[in-house]
Structure formats: structure tokens, C-alpha cells
From TrEMBL:
The keyword ATP-binding applies. Residues 491-630 form the R13L1/DRL21-like LRR repeat region domain. Residues 1-16 form the signal peptide. One of its GO terms (molecular function) is ATP binding. One of its GO terms (biological process) is response to other organism. It comes from the Eukaryota. Residues 186-346 form the NB-ARC domain. It comes from Eleusine coracana subsp. coracana. The keyword Metal-binding does not apply. This is Uncharacterized protein. The gene is gb02661.
Length: 757
């Protein structure tokens, strides 16, 4: 009984409100404290017997729970009035309106008190009725602590038993044997339906096929479109496709002719792959009249494919031009393999007793991957044999009609949630199918609806600070947190944390004497390091005890240079809002730590006045360099005769550096060059024409750029050339000489733009 499960949480929530300090204070003030206390006691008594009522199948009990639900919501509304009054008084005191906060009008107070008494009377009636049912007090079964049972990208579990299916479908997508037979009767674009009942993993299977290396290489355009049932109309589908192609919002009106023209511009005769996932439309007219003509005949080169996943055979017959590929249930061996991956992945031993019960559970899942993964994840939290036996002996897989459905198994996981979590889960039903929910927003909505109760704890216990083996600490949704301990978040506090790994971010950095004690050079497991000097409140409000000294990366003076080590796992470094970082870090001893760095991002470093060429020499493995919003870069020194000695550099982005006039020579390994909004740049590097590996050249908003280097025609690997808002360019080499360049974007502000063609 899902309704009763939610009711248990609702009654507990209302009882908590009735006992809260806000309601209690106002109830005493309005002299209805006895009624409030009686309401609280009755709700707690009812809550104890709701667990028994949940298992009852009597019609009278079901009717009683329905009435209780209505009264509980009414009681919550009344208690909200009391809470509002308490908060109003607090707010007026905080604002200093007066030393004595004026009470609400006597009429408001009378009505609120009357509503409380009315609700109490209804609860009294329900309690008397409850006593006639013979319900007994039962506690909610203890809930297993939630633990992660799989990795974020569990591709291996999703493809169990589908290797043969995968190869068969990929062969159908890549088959070009009848390429010469395409004619007006047989469109260039073929539609392949993938069908099967819910829970077979059609979407997961389609993703595995879609992301296969061979498929990605074969098609020029790849698009994945999830189709909501309510939005299968021509304009909505076409707009979704255009947004995928353009990687941006489509603001065209709902006019098919305009959308058709845009399709021709963006797709044309390119060989494309389009996945239409979870299609429910069974109206032939919607497909045949417009979408089929537009997608299968008007655009797309020979060999293009549309893959449609659906539970409906009718959808397959309407849309398919190729025979539908029907996914079958997993074999017994594959079912056990998938189930055991989930069930025995979280400390549960694969004992003989568990295997016997597990085999019975797997048999009930009928080879459905979703059911196997769901029930397997549930069993990973069950440590006792009797728990496994109870689920193995339950009637999981059959409905009243006798036809197998997956919902009873999914419901099993729901029934094992706590009452509070059931409310949070059920609340998600207000979102439409395929809606991408924002985690933080969802939590805020839960809190706003009182599904998540505020904990009274305001301070952490002292023993929390003695967890010497602690590896991860997360402080989520601590909205009242204002200050961290003075001696708990200084830069020197990480001195002995040698096992820090993956990513570390330091905010609100500034020069302090203790910075050298941080010993960042000893954090050999770090992969990503971000240093932010930004002091805006939006970044890290009130966390003022973080500091940085210029030599914090360096070993102490008495440490021999021979013992210095590289941060051998550090791959990414981001420096934002420099407060003297580059001017202070001039020692090669510091930059030696970054010898294996692959990505460097520098932004808003107003003190960087010249190219850090010497520093960059230490980064022989650097592949990506991003410099942006460094307004003083180029004010000192000249880089025209210098060269970036980065033999593996592939991507160089230089953006919004207003003082920059010249760019140093570029390494021949460069594949992508982006120079944007550098208003003072007058020339590009003279060796640009010798970059044999350059695939993408993007120049935007360089107002003083008046010439391009010689040898541009020799860029044989160039695939995309974009030059916008560069009005001073007088002459440009002919693009027609660049055989491999298939994308050229020029703006009308360029002089003699037509001459390059």
C-alpha cells in the first residue's frame, strides 16, 4: 500500500511540527497549549499503529487511512499558521521594528485556535475508530544504510549478454552493400526499430551501439533524441534534431517550411545517425505525412540510419523500413551474472545459502535486466540469510492478470525505503518523463515541502575531529553554516594530508606567512589543482581563514634539492585571479613540480605582464593551454622572436587579453588555435603556415589584425576555419587551395571576403 507508506511519513512530519518550538511558543501565547499537546500525543499513537494498518487488506481500514490522510493534511495546514506567526514575530524582532512585537488581531487568533480545536476533534474520532480495528503497535523495520552499489558509469553491467545483439545491430548500421541501389522508391535513410518490453534495456543497448568506436567513425553526424510521448509532433522533433546538430537552442517558429530549410543547411547530404529513444506514437499520420519525408528523403546521404527504440510493435511497423530488431530476455547464465555483479558487490559474501536464494530470485526476474539490476542492488544491503529467503519466497513477479510485469519488483525497492524517503521519491512524480532534475533544486523543494526535517544539531561533536583515517568529508546543504574553525581551514592545515588525491580547490587565497607549511609539493596523489584568488562572496562566503604564500609549493629551505619530487600525478592546474603567482613563482624549483602537467588554465591574472615562456619550458607534456582575461599580458617584453617550446601542445586558447599584440611562435604539434577578443593583436605567428597538424583555426574580435601569415594554403590538415569581426584584414589566401577544409565561416565585416573563394 504505497498510500499508507506515504501516510506514515506524513503523520510523523505533522507530529514533529506539533512538537516544534515554533508551534509550542505560539500555542502557549494563544492559550491552546493543551490542545496542541493532545494533538501531538494522538498523532504519535496513530503513527505507531500505521505500520500494522499498512499490511491490512480490510476495506474499513483502507477507508480509515484515507480519512486520516485528509485530516493530517488539514492539521499540517493549521500548524503552518502557528509556525508563520512565530516566524513573523522573530523577523520583526530581528529587524528591530519595536521592543514589543504586536500580536495578530484577536479575530485571527480566534480563528486559528478554533481550527486547531476542530482538527483535534477529527483526530479524536479517528483514534476511537482505530481502537476498534484491533491494530497493534509495530515499529517500522530498520532501514539499511544506503551505500553505493555500482560505479557512476557501469557500462559492463549494462551490456551483459548483449554482445551478439550489439554486433548484429552494428552490422546493420554499417552495411553499405546496397549503396548503389538507392533510388526514389528506396530513400537514402533507413529506419531500424529496436523493440522489446519495458525493462529489457533498450535504451542502454542503444547507447552501447551509439558509442561504439566503429559507429562514431562511420557517421558524419550523430544525434541522440529522447522523444517524450506528449511531444511527438513534427515541429518539436525537428527542433530537437536541429538543436542537437547546432549544439544550441533553436528559436525558429513552428513553421515546417523554415525548419525544413534549416535541416537542408545543417544536415544536407551528410551520412547521419539519429537515435529516437522511447517512441510511443502509434498514429501513422504523424510519421507518414511530414517526418518521414523530411528525415528519410529530403536530407541525409546514402547509408544514413534512424534507430527507433520502442515497446510497441505498432510503432515498429509504422516507422520501420528495415525489419525490427527485437531484444530478448537474458539467458539464465547471463541473468545470474548481472544479478551477482550487483548483489555481491557491497560486502555481501557469495555464500552457498545466498546463492540458493539468489537463484530463486533470479528465476522470478524472468531475464529482465532492469529487474535484475534493481533487485540485485537491493540484495547488496541484505547481510542475513533469512532476509534473502524472505524475498526469494515472496510473490514478486506476477500480477493479478498472470502476465509478468516489472512493476512489482520495482515496488519492492520502494517498499524498503524509509517513510521520509518514500515521500521524497513520490514527490518526483510531479516531473514529466525524461525531465532532467537539478539535484540542488530538488532538495530545496523537498525542504520547502517539509519532507526533509531540520536537524537541531548546530555543532559537530569533538570526536568528529579525530577521525584519523577519514578519506572523504562532504558538507552538503549546510545552509546555516557561517564559520569554519579558526584553526581548522588555514592553508597550513593540509600539511600532513599526504594522501589527498584527485581534485583540490583552494579559494580566497592571499599571502600569509604560514603558506609555506602547506607542503603542496608532497601531495603526490593529486590529479587536479585549482587556485582561486577571487574574493567574491559568491565563491566562498565567510571562509576567510584560507591563505597562500608564494612559496607554498616549495620545500623548506633546509630540505636538500636532491629530495625534491615532481607531482607525478598532477595533470591539470587552474590559476584564477592571480595575486602575484607568476611573479613570485619565478624559481625553476617550483615549476619542476609541474613537469607532467597536461592542462594549464590561466585566467584573470592581472599581474602577468609577459609570456611565462621560461616557466612553460618545464611542462614538456602539456597538451592544452588556456589563457583568458589577462589584461596586462604583453605590456612587458616581446614574444615575437620567442617560441612556445611545448612539443606536445595540441590546443591553445587565448581570449580577452586586451594588451596582447604579438603571439610567440607555435609548436608544430598544435591542432587547435583559438584567438578571441584580443583587441590589440596585429599579427598572427609567422610560422602559422607550417603547422601541418592544425585542424581548427578560430579568430574572433581582433580589431587591429590586418594581415595573415604566408603559407596558409599549406595547412593540409585544416578542417575548420573561422574568422569573425576582424575588419582590418586586407588580404586572405584562397580557401579553394585547402582541400580538406570543409567548414569556412567569415563575417561581412571582413574586407575582400569574397576574394578568398
Amino acid at each position: 500500500m504505497a498510500g499508507s507508506s506515504l501516510l506514515l511519513g506524513l503523520v510523523g512530519r505533522v507530529a514533529g511540527k506539533a512538537a516544534g518550538a515554533l508551534v509550542t511558543d505560539v500555542a502557549r501565547m494563544w492559550r491552546v497549549e493543551s490542545q496542541r499537546a493532545m494533538l501531538e500525543r494522538h498523532l504519535l499513537a496513530v503513527q505507531k499503529r500505521l505500520v500494522d494498518a499498512e499490511d491490512s487488506s480490510e476495506a474499513a481500514v483502507k477507508r480509515w487511512t484515507k480519512d486520516l490522510k485528509a485530516v493530517a493534511y488539514e492539521a499540517e495546514h493549521v500548524l503552518d499558521i502557528f509556525q508563520y506567526e512565530a516566524l513573523r514575530r522573530q523577523a520583526r524582532r530581528t529587524a528591530g521594528c519595536s521592543s514589543h512585537v504586536r500580536d495578530k488581531s484577536p479575530l485571527f487568533r480566534y480563528k486559528a485556535s478554533k481550527k486547531l480545536k476542530k482538527v483535534l476533534h477529527k483526530i479524536n474520532v479517528l483514534v476511537e475508530e482505530m481502537n476498534t480495528f484491533g491494530l497493534v503497535e509495530r515499529k517500522e523495520p530498520p532501514q539499511a544504510v544506503f551505500r553505493q552499489t555500482h560505479s557512476a558509469l557501469d557500462d559492463s553491467a549494462g551490456i551483459v549478454g548483449r554482445e551478439g545483439d550489439k554486433e548484429a545491430v552494428i552490422k546493420m548500421l554499417l552495411d553499405q552493400r546496397d549503396k548503389h541501389k538507392y533510388n526514389e522508391q528506396r530513400p537514402n535513410v533507413q529506419v531500424l526499430p529496436i523493440t522489446g518490453m519495458g525493462g529489457l534495456g533498450k535504451t542502454t543497448f542503444a547507447k552501447v551501439v551509439y558509442n561504439d568506436r566503429r559507429v562514431q567513425k562511420h557517421f558524419e553526424l550523430k544525434m541522440w533524441c529522447s522523444v517524450p510521448q506528449a511531444k511527438f509532433d513534427t515541429c518539436s522533433v525537428l527542433k530537437s534534431i536541429l538543436e542537437l546538430v547546432r549544439k544550441g537552442r533553436c528559436d525558429l517558429p513552428d513553421t515546417i517550411e523554415l525548419l525544413k530549410e534549416r535541416l537542408h543547411e545543417d544536415i544536407g547530404q551528410k551520412r547521419y545517425l539519429l537515435i529516437l529513444d522511447d517512441v510511443w506514437n502509434e498514429e501513422e499520420k504523424k510519421w507518414e505525412d511530414d517526418l518521414k519525408t523530411l528525415l528519410c528523403s529530403s536530407v541525409g546521404g546514402p547509408g544514413s540510419r534512424i534507430v527507433v527504440t520502442s515497446r510497441s510493435q505498432q510503432v515498429a511497423s509504422i516507422m520501420g523500413t528495415l525489419p525490427p530488431y527485437e531484444l530478448s530476455c537474458l539467458s539464465e547464465d547471463d541473468s545470474w551474472k548481472l544479478f551477482s555483479q550487483k548483489a555481491f558487490s557491497n560486502g555481501v559474501q557469495e555464500k552457498a545459502e545466498f546463492v540458493t536464494a539468489g537463484k530463486s530470485i533470479v528465476n522470478k526476474c524472468k531475464g529482465l535486466p532492469l529487474a535484475l539490476k534493481t533487485i540485485g542492488g537491493l540484495m547488496s544491503s541484505k547481510q542475513q540469510v533469512h532476509e534473502w529467503d524472505a524475498i526469494a519466497n515472496s510473490n514478486l513477479g506476477a500480477t493479478d492478470s498472470g502476465r509478468y510485469e516489472i512493476l512489482p519488483i520495482l515496488k519492492l525497492s520502494y517498499m524498503h525505503l524509509s517513510p521520509e524517503m518514500k515521500q521524497c521519491f513520490a514527490f518526483c512524480a510531479i516531473f514529466p518523463k525524461d525531465h532532467e532534475m537539478d539535484k540542488d533544486m530538488l532538495i530545496q523543494l523537498w525542504i520547502a515541502n517539509s519532507f526533509v526535517q531540520e536537524e537541531p544539531t548546530t555543532d559537530l561533536e569533538q570526536k568528529v575531529c579525530k577521525l584519523y583515517n577519514l578519506e572523504t568529508l562532504k558538507l552538503n546543504n549546510c545552509y546555516m553554516l557561517r564559520y569554519l574553525p579558526k584553526d581548522g581551514c588555514g592553508i597550513d592545515e593540509i600539511k600532513y594530508m599526504r594522501q589527498l588525491r584527485n581534485r583540490m580547490e583552494l579559494y580566497n587565497l592571499r599571502k600569509v606567512k604560514r603558506g609555506s607549511k602547506a607542503n603542496l609539493h608532497e601531495k603526490h596523489n593529486l590529479k587536479e589543482l585549482s587556485l582561486y584568488w577571487d574574493r567574491k562572496e559568491s565563491v566562498a562566503p565567510r571562509y576567510e581563514n584560507v591563505g597562500l604564500q608564494a612559496n607554498m609549493m616549495m620545500p623548506s629551505e633546509d630540505q636538500p634539492s636532491s629530495s625534491q619530487k615532481t607531482l607525478e600525478n598532477l595533470r591539470s592546474l587552474e590559476v584564477k585571479g592571480d595575486d602575484g603567482f607568476f611573479s613570485a613563482f619565478s624559481s625553476s624549483r617550483v615549476w619542476h613540480c609541474f613537469a607532467v602537467l597536461e592542462e594549464l588554465v590561466i585566467s584573470y591574472c592581472c599581474n602577468m605582464v609577459h609570456w611565462p615562456l621560461e616557466e612553460l619550458r618545464c611542462m614538456a607534456l602539456l597538451r592544452s593551454l588556456h589563457i583568458s582575461h589577462c589584461a596586462a599580458l604583453g605590456q612587458e617584453g616581446s614574444a615575437s622572436e620567442e617560441t612556445l617550446t611545448l612539443p606536445r601542445l595540441e590546443r591553445l586558447w587565448i581570449k580577452s587579453c586586451d594588451s596582447l599584440q604579438v603571439i610567440p611562435g607555435l609548436p608544430t604539434s598544435l591542432e587547435e588555435l583559438d584567438i578571441s577578443r584580443c583587441r590589440s593583436v596585429v599579427a598572427l605567428p609567422s610560422d602559422l603556415g607550417g603547422l601541418a597538424n592544425l585542424r581548427n583555426l578560430y579568430v574572433l574580435g581582433c580589431d587591429l589584425l590586418n594581415t595573415l601569415p604566408d603559407g596558409m594554403e599549406d595547412l593540409t590538415s585544416l578542417e575548420a576555419l573561422t574568422i569573425k569581426e576582424c575588419p582590418c584584414i586586407e588580404e586572405f589566401p584562397r580557401v579553394s587551395a585547402m582541400d580538406g577544409c570543409n567548414t569556412v565561416v567569415l563575417t561581412k565585416r571582413m574586407k575582400n571576403a569574397c576574394a578568398i573563394l
